[in-house]
Specification:
The chain has about 450 residues and is an alpha/beta fold. The protein is built from 19 helices and 14 strands. Strand 13 (about 410-415), helix 19 (about 420-425) and strand 14 form a beta-alpha-beta unit. The radius of gyration is 23 Å and the shape is globular.
Length: about 450
């Protein structure tokens, strides 16, 4: 098929490259000419595991190109994916869907033949019907323009994998023509046995918020139990194993740490909470707000552990923070718990140096007040304490023997509870972890 992807960011670029990988002819659209030039040169402006290689392959193959001309996309494509940003609104509780409506207003006047618009952006329930009315009012093709809401369930750091091999596809639609378009564009994925859920638009819109909110609830729950372990002297890692073996629960997404971040979970849970209140589901809103409050308190929990580990006031302490991205596999630092913790450490008069394998450049833009390095061993020189704040494989696979002697007093606070502490302790490191007894 001939496909356009409107919006070339953390959602749009991986989706465009993946559609080309599936064999479609793809044109990506964005308003940023400098970004478009880089993309057409095969250069990826964001980091996602496997994405630079996929982008380079298909800009070279000719299946994938980028433009700032939305008229060009309208002329080419049969299916138009909308992947623009929907950041949290000024009220802090709902989505700002201005870019979605802006994309429709630019695209629709050029749609003079039957086509399907497929929304990927996360939106408030009820958006699809409004987008449909707007598109059909503005488009010369009128009611021959179909609208589907097809929410993404991408894990940043795994966006390429999750697009090409998702665990499910959801399509909220109202016409047989729209369903046919979805089945055609995703045919290689559906042929591989991936389930397709065809729903009404409202169900599709709610499903995305429900999924991310459930994950947030799970993360907040295990962090609350980790706090109980901290107070009682219990071991959260054993509790996770005990709970995770129960098939009704499972251990996925249930690792105690400093909370969730990024461009999806925080805003989706806020907006889903607001939707619950607007729909009159007050008990649901109370439950969801409790999960938010637990997540908001994770920086304080980590600060308490750092203070305990250091055994003295943080003022004047040289602290190395391992991690700037909100999670491994991406250079995205939006609402990063690692940077929130770094900021709190600096506010407590510590001197902070941040290391990250991929996100130093993006972190420097948002938080220029820290010192940065991309040299892992050198990041420890002169440090009084090291804080593991993002669970990159580089930290989990680091050799404690090779790092001994870089800090004079090897002291490590694992705020993601991902390390096996014994090899570190065997080489003289003192290791503290959230929810586990210190040794």
């Amino acid at each position: 098929m001939r496909v356009s992807v409107i919006g070339c960011g953390h959602l749009g670029i991986p989706h465009a490259a993946a559609m080309a990988e599936l064999g479609h002819e793809v044109i990506g659209v964005d308003v940023d000419q400098a970004k478009i030039d880089r993309l057409n040169a095969g250069e990826c402006p964001i980091y996602e595991t496997g994405l630079p290689e996929l982008l380079a392959r298909h800009t070279t193959s000719g299946r994938l190109r980028f433009t700032t001309d939305i008229h060009e996309a309208a002329d080419l494509a049969e299916v138009h994916f909308i992947g623009v940003g929907t950041p949290i609104d000024a009220d802090g509780r709902s989505y700002d869907t201005g870019q979605v409506y802006g994309a429709i207003r630019q695209l629709a006047p050029h749609l003079d033949r039957p086509c399907t618009i497929v929304g990927k952006s996360t939106v408030t329930v009820g958006t699809t019907s409004q987008v449909t009315a707007l598109a059909q009012r503005l488009a010369p093709a009128s009611e021959r323009v179909n609208v589907v809401w097809n929410p993404e369930f991408l894990r940043e750091g795994h966006a390429v994998q999750d697009t090409l091999r998702p665990d499910r596809i959801i399509a909220g639609l109202t016409t047989t023509e729209a369903e046919k378009a979805i089945r055609t564009v995703y045919a290689p994925i559906l042929d591989a046995g991936i389930p397709l859920f065809v729903t009404d638009p409202q169900t599709a819109e709610l499903a995305k918020g429900a999924a991310n909110t459930f994950l947030g609830l799970k993360i907040s729950y295990i962090n609350a139990v980790a706090d109980m372990c901290e107070a009682a002297g219990g071991d959260i890692s054993q509790i996770v194993e005990i709970l995770g073996i129960d098939p009704r629960i499972g251990s996925g997404g249930m690792r105690p740490g400093i909370g969730y971040g990024g461009g999806c979970l925080p805003k989706d849970i806020r907006a889903f909470t607001a939707s619950a209140r607007q729909l009159g589901a007050d008990d649901a809103a109370t439950l969801l707000r409790a999960a938010e409050k637990i997540n908001e308190g994770r920086t304080a929990a980590a600060m308490s552990l750092v203070a305990t580990a250091l055994g003295r006031p943080l003022q004047g302490a040289a602290i190395t923070v391992w991690g700037a991205a909100f999670k491994p596999g991406t250079n995205d630092v939006r609402e990063s718990p690692a940077l929130a913790l770094a900021h709190a450490l600096q506010q407590a008069s510590g001197t902070v140096t941040v290391h990250d394998p991929q996100a130093v450049a993006t972190a420097m833009i948002r938080n220029p007040e820290f010192d940065y390095t991309d040299d892992l061993p050198a990041s420890l020189d002169g440090a009084d304490l090291v804080v593991l704040a993002t669970e990159w494989p580089e930290y989990q696979q680091a050799s404690p023997q090779a790092l001994v002697g870089r800090p004079a007093n090897p002291l490590l606070v694992d705020c993601r509870t991902v390390l096996d502490p014994e090899p570190w302790r065997a080489t003289g490191w003192t290791v503290h972890q959230l929810g586990r007894p210190a040794k």
